[in-house]
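Entry 14. Ran structure prediction on the chain below.
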Amino acid sequence: MRALELERTAAGADGRALGTGELEVVPADLVVRSVGYRGTSLPGLPVDERTGTVAHTAGRVLRDGRPSTGEYVAG
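Output, structure tokens:
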């Protein structure tokens, strides 16, 4: 099994993110790193062409206003 280890962060006194030591391991078959780029559409993925974003709630892709099973976004 492949997994992604995440650490919760909190804002420090200077506003910068600091690790809290609280870890979570999430099974993952694919991880895509995306930092500061405008998204481009993929076939079948509901992308708002104006903003370059995917409609979501708490990272879960929305289709017809409902969370889609097994589809997530981040960034």
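Strands lie at 3-11, 17-27, 47-48, 53-54, 56-57, 60-63, 66-72. Will compare against last week's run tomorrow.
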